[in-house]
Structures are given as C-alpha cells and as structure tokens.
Amino acid sequence: MERWEGRRSVANADHSVRGDAAADTGARTGLTRALLWLVVAVLAVRQVAVVLRQPPGERLLDLEAWTGENGVLRLTGSLYDGGRFTGTPFAGVVLKPLTASAQPALGVVWTSVSLLLVVAVGLVVARALPTPVGRRTALFAAPVAIGLLLLSLPVRNTLHLGQTSVLPVLLVLLACFVVREHRAAGVLVGLAAAFQPVLLLFAALLWLTGRRQASVSAGVTFALATAAAWVAAPKDSWTYWVHHLAGAGLGERPDSLANQSLHGALLRLGLEGPVEIALFLVVSAAVVVIGLRRAVRYAQDGQLLLAVAVTGCVVAAVTPTAWQHQLLWVLLAVVGKVGKRASDRLVWPSVVLLAVTLPATMLLPNLETLFPVRDNVLLLAALGAACLAPFLPRTSPYWQHPVPTDYAKPVAARWRRVPLLPFWRRVLTRPNLLLELLLIRVVYDAYAQVRLAARAGRPLAEEHGRQIHAIEQWLHIDIEHWVNHTVVQITWLRDFFDYYYSTFHFIVPLTILGVLYVRRPADYRWVRSSIGFATLLALVGFWLYPLAPPRLMPGLGFIDTVHGVQDFAKPDYGTLTTVTNQYAAMPSLHFGWSLWCGVVIVMLAPKLWMKALGLLHPLFTIAAIVATANHWVLDAAGGALVVSLGFGLTYLLSGPRRLATGEREAAAESVEPSPAEPAAEPEPVPAGKAAGGA
C-alpha cells in the first residue's frame, strides 16, 4: 500500500511539473501573439497617418483624380480623356456615386475601408494555409500575414494612391476559401474580373480543378457586369475594350518602371512594334500554360493557396500593364515550400519578402549590367513563382521533416554567468549564397541610408571637430596637418593614398568574406556577425556624434586630396554629393573595417607571412585616412572600439570561435550538396556488426 501511494505521489508530481511547463508555454505563446497584434495595430495606424498627413495634392492621387473637383468621374466626357483613369468601365460605374461624398471625409473613409480589406485578406490567407498546420503557426499566422501585407509595396502603394486593387484579390480569395456554394464563388470571381479582366484566368483554374459550375458562373457574371457597363457608358466601353484593347496603354507609359509585366519588360529592353507584340503574346501564352498546369497540380495536392498565388503571378506577368499596386499576388507565393534542407527553407520566402517590401535599388547595386534585373525584380519574382520555383508537394518526405542543419557543439564562454543564446548556434555548413548576397546588399544599403539620414548641422559638426582637435593637442597626437601637407608634396605617395582610401575599403573585406565562405564556412558566419555588429554600432556613433573631418574644418589649412578644394564660403559645402553624409566621421569605419580584416587574417591565416601581410592593411588605412584629411586620429580609435565591441558581442552570443577538433575538420571539408540533390542516406549496418560481431 505504501509503495502504491509513493508511485501515485511521484505521478502527481510529474503531472504537476508537466502542467506547469504547459502553462508557461501557453503564457509565452499568448504574450507573443499579443505582441504581434500590437505590432499590426502600430503598422496600421502608421500607414493611415502617413497617408492622411500628406497634403491634399500628394495623397490618394488616383482617388482625387477620379473624384476631385475636376475628377474624371465628375466630367461629362469620356472617363479616359487625359489618361488619368485606368480602370474598367464597370469600375467607373461602380465608383461614380463616390463623387457625391465630401472630399475630406471620403479620403478618411476610403483609407479606412482599404485597411479593413487588407486585414480581411490577411485573415483569409491565414485560414487557407495548407494543412497540416502546427498550433503556433495557426495562432501566429493571422497577425504575421496582416503585418507583411501592411509592409508590402503593393499595399503601401494602394493606400497612397487610393486604388481599388485590394478588392479583386479579396474577392478571389473569398471565392476560393470562404464561399462554399459554387455559383456564389463564381459570382465573386466574375466581379473581380470585371475590375481587372485578366483575372478571368481564375475561372480557368476553377474549371481545371473540377469546379466547373463556379467557372461558368464566373464567366456569366463577368459578361453581365461588362454588358451593364456598356449600357451605362457605351462610349467609355468602346474606348476601353476596342480603342485601347482592354485598357492596354492607359495610364503611365507602358515602358515605365512602374509596369512590372512582360509587356513593360520587353519595351524596356528596346523591342517595339509588331515584333514586341508577337513576342509578348508567345511568351505570355507559354507562361499561362506552364503556370496554370502548376497551379492545378498544387491545388490537387491540397495547396490551394499556393495554386491561387501561382495563378495570380501569371496574371501579373501576362497583363499588358501590371502596376505596383496590382502585384499583391507575389507576396502570397511565400507560402510555397522550396528546398529539402532546413537551411534552404528560408531562401524562397526571404527572396519574395525582400522583393515585395523593399525598393529594387536596395536589392541590387547601381551597375548598368544589372539594370535589366533591378528594373524587373517584381516581374522576375512573379515569373519565378509561376514557372520556375520547385515547390515541394505535400507527399514529399521533406515537407514536414527537412534535412536538419548541422550545428556545432557550443563551447562555453569564459564568463560563465553570461548564457549563450540558443538561437545563435554555430552552423558548420555554409549558408545559401543567394540569401547571403541579398543579406549583405540589404544591410549595406540600410547602413548607407541610416548614415545619410544621420545628418547634423554644420555648426554642431564643426564644434565637435574643434573638441576632437583640442583633445588631440592635449594628448600630443595632432599629427594630421603635418602628415597631410607632407604627403601632398610627394605626388606618387598622394596618388597611392588617394587610391587606397577610395578602393581597398570595400575590396579587402569582401574578399575575406568570399574566401571564408568557400573555404571555412563555420568561421565565415562568426566573422560576418562581428563586422555586422561593428557597423551597427558605428551607425549609433554617426547619429549621436556628428563630426566634421579635418578637410571640412575651416581655418585649419587641411587639403582634401580625394575630393578637391572645398568652397568654405558656401553653407552647404560639406555635402559633396546627395548620397553620403560628410559628417559621419566618428568612428572611422575605414579604419574599423581594415582592423577587422587584420584581426581575421591574423586569427585564421595558416602562414606567418600571410598574418604579417594582413597587419599591413590597417597600417596603410590609418595612414591613408590621415594623409587625405578624411579622419582624425581619434576617429581611428573609435573605429577600433566598435570593432572590438563587435567581436565581443559575437563572443557573448555564440561563444569562442574555436570548435572541437572533429567539428573543425568537418567544417573545413564540408561541401554541401546542391539543393536539387537529396542528402545521402546512411548505409544500413549489418546485424552482426551492429551487435558487435567481427
């Protein structure tokens, strides 16, 4: 009896512990969900405030052009006179009653309703995720979806312009995931097509997936709506359907960067006339066939949301004019799973999110050879989703269980009281190259933007310059003037330092990252994190302590060897260009990054002469920044400080750089298989050997 009571008490204690753990997990999940909804609310308020804070002539541009004092919906002539209205005649008939509303109130109501439509789209998308869906995913899906929608360029553009492009997307989603009755679903798709005719491709999707009654209903509804518009506005209907061939050519020039369709891309490539039209029709037909076949396959696999996203991407590609606010379908393609390894799963959603939320100029550098890609980023993302991305079927063994990532065993830090962050575990294999290049590019562009935004007035920057100069005089290290004038008198030395200052600042760090990425992937992640933290800390310094470099200090007699003579009589002489902040001198990232290069080379280079050569780079750099009068000596000290803190933060988060001997050898020799190849399965072990037999 006593033994039984003891077992029961142990079982009760175990149940109590498990219950407490479950309660803690539930509380954390609830708190996270509440925080996500709070972020959504902040984003929504911010978007509304950004729109309504703009002066009347700069907000809701399309809405005011339609319904303003002399808007096209108020005129007695054609809707398409002047090219300001680009919608269908049916849309003009539906929007006509809005002209009776008071203009200020209409802007507030229109923006609020548009925001509610975005929220509805997010809720439907969260409900439509392909099963099986984990509990946390189900709880977090709605706020995450709505937040991403609010951050996306199509939604921001829609709210800014006062467009109707969210409504057709919502109608299609309601027809596919909410409305069960086939005829009603077809009516919703037909109404969506009445606003954007190319959306009739969803009627084809309904037909090919077995919902033929809904497909017929969609076609009939579209025909009735279009016929009603012909009766109400025959001249406008003739202009839209016949003169402009279903609206082609309305609005901005079709070859403008805003038109992210195949037609716009071909025009930007220089093709014109019958050749361009014929090529557009042929390529569009191929995209429609390939995209619809893929969409049908995903729908039959139980991934209807992915099928809808693929069809929407086909619509965006083949329509003659696909403006930014009509490209919301690209974001929905983020639900597709690509890659058999866990480390590859983030590549596709990251590419989609970056393409849909950031300007193309942030994704690719300003190189002429990359313009065809940069100018068509959204189109390429749509074509990738429609025709190329190898989305996994749900029957794939990798759908729920991708090949796991190989992590190194953590090596304890010297400071035992500082716990290592579990999500910052060291990965032995190299990261995906595309994702890494995008990460480096986006982070650098964000750095450049923040550096540019951290502007300060000339008096404050010069006051800080006098402070730094006084401290250096007190420390007897004010050697900038002597070095600057000495180098100016030696032409070859001046040219050498000018070239070194302008060139090696980027070449050497990128070369080191590239070599480590190929040869030592485990160390690559560690050193990449350290330079990233150092750069972020430097941005804080630029913001808090704007500093005029020696070359921009009037009265001290410095010579700017790189940029030329400065006209100190002009109040804006410090702004040499519009893309850089001339007062971001403290700390010096020129020296900071060079010191980072030297430390990494000393730590990792296998040969002594390599280590010695690595130390020359920071020495040459500090000489260059002082000789060219671009930095004070103390700026270099600031650069050394942020680099030291960058290494320290990386140490605190992930522990020491060293790995166990076996892990280091595995990391040095690891070459990941291509994403298309499955990971090698372990060979079966014979029963005798498994049991210890010879």
Task: Give the DSSP E fraction (strand runs of 2 or more residues).
Answer: under 5%
- Overall number of strands: 0
Spans of at least 5 consecutive residues with low confidence: 571-579, 671-694
Rounded to the nearest angstrom, the distance between the terminal CA atoms is 50 Å
Radius of gyration: 31 Å
Helix share of residues? 55-70%
Q: State mean pLDDT (0 to 100 scale).
A: 81
Q: Total number of helical segments?
A: 29
Topology as H/E string? HHHHHHHHHHHHHHHHHHHHHHHHHHHHH
Shape: globular
Query: Which structural class do the helices and strands define?
Result: mainly alpha
Q: Sheet bearing the most strands, described?
A: none
Structural notes for this entry:
This protein is mostly helical and 694 residues long. The chain is built from 29 helices and no strands. The protein has helices at 2-53, 61-67, 89-95, 103-127, 135-151, 153-161, 166-177, 182-195, 201-208, 212-232, 234-243, 262-268, 273-300, 304-318, 328-332, 347-357, 360-363, 371-374, 377-388, 433-453, 458-475, 480-488, 491-519, 521-544, 589-604, 608-627, 633-654, 661-669, 687-690. Helix 13 (273-300) packs antiparallel against helix 14 (304-318), helix 20 packs parallel to helix 24 and helix 24 (521-544) packs antiparallel against helix 25 (589-604). The radius of gyration is 31 Å and the shape is globular.
